[in-house]
Design brief:
Helix content is about 40%, strand content about 20%. The N and C termini lie far apart (about 50 Å). It has about 140 residues and is α+β, with helices and mostly antiparallel strands. The chain has a three-stranded antiparallel β-sheet. Helix 1 crosses helix 2 and helix 2 crosses helix 5. The protein has one domain: Alpha-Beta Complex (Sufe protein. Chain: A).
Length: about 140
């Protein structure tokens, strides 16, 4: 089986952005199953309702690395509400697409981000009924 990766996937796989952990993160999320190989952790820092820092650790293939890398870029500078809307399809699209048998990697990354946001909301007790709590005041 020949893998056909886009230049964006290759760039993010070979030169991943935002690798590591955010110290004293406001939210931590995990996705995947370490027993089967693919596993990701996303950590986020939020200030004034925006994700100002997003980092990842991943165990997986090049596509898993690339999807986590691009997800951190998609999430950074977004409000919580905007970041909650990031989907696996958007992650794959940001990379110019993924081979069908690697689409699960975009789900891995998006799910880890959503888990980090859920952890943030749980820790900070953000009231989602008050939409104003999701946006920064400028």
């Amino acid at each position: 089986m020949t893998l056909s990766y886009t230049p964006q996937v290759l760039e993010h796989a070979q030169n991943p952005r935002n690798v590591g952990e955010v110290p004293d993160a406001d939210g931590v999320g995990q996705s995947g199953d370490p027993r089967c190989g693919d596993f990701a952790v996303m950590t986020i820092r939020v200030r004034d309702g925006r994700i100002v820092q997003c980092k990842f650790l991943v165990q997986g293939c090049g596509a898993a690395i690339a999807t986590c890398s691009v997800t951190t870029e998609l999430a950074t500078d977004k409000t919580i509400a905007e970041a909650q809307q990031i989907t696996d399809a958007q992650v794959a699209e940001a990379l110019g697409g993924l081979p069908p048998h690697k689409m699960h990697c975009s789900n891995l990354a998006a799910s880890a981000l959503q888990a980090a946001i859920a952890d943030l909301i749980k820790r900070q007790k953000v009231d989602l009924r008050d939409w104003r709590s999701l946006y920064s005041r400028r």
